[in-house]
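Sample intake sheet
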Amino acid sequence: MGRWEPNARDRLAQAAMTLFQEHGYDRTTVEEIAARAGLTERTFFRYFTDKKEVLFGGSDALHERIVTTIAEAPQGTAPLDAVSAGLESLAPFFKDRRDHARARQALLSAHAELRERELIKLASLASAAADALRKRGVTDPTASLAAEAGIAVFKVAFERWLEDPKAQDLSRHIQLGLEELRAVTASTGANTAPSAPPRPPARARKS
């Protein structure tokens, strides 16, 4: 068995973020990350498939949390409300990690391959949420629409949270985003409501 290294995953993640900021993502190697953490490359690959994965290592925990919260929502909860509860349950994962999240976001903004990986992660999260809704008996397209809309709200809320000068809690931004979504859909529904059918043309006079 390999030698046990306490907090190896966290040490590697912190070392990677430090090096990404100091030298740039492209110039940083796995060897350098392992060395900065005081570990070996072999240890690195026990936790991450590559240096990109360091930035997405918490995805499994997010999946598990949102799926569990949706599954445990009270019977009769509307699909979007169940997804909303799942999204708000993710906020504690980011508590006290705003600086880290902002540094990570800067890396994503600078590298197309990382943005692509982020979109894949969000799509996977939406798929997991939709599956959780289906297990509650919600049929498609409602399950897919509620999940996709919820993840879109989460993406916008997360970006607002990073930029918020008041540093309000992420859950608050999620709530605001959901309120805006409901307002938009209500407004759209009102604007697109079917109008009264046109009056039939008057009959031509008989000659």
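Comment: DSSP finds ten helices and no strands in the chain. The chain has a mean pLDDT of 88.
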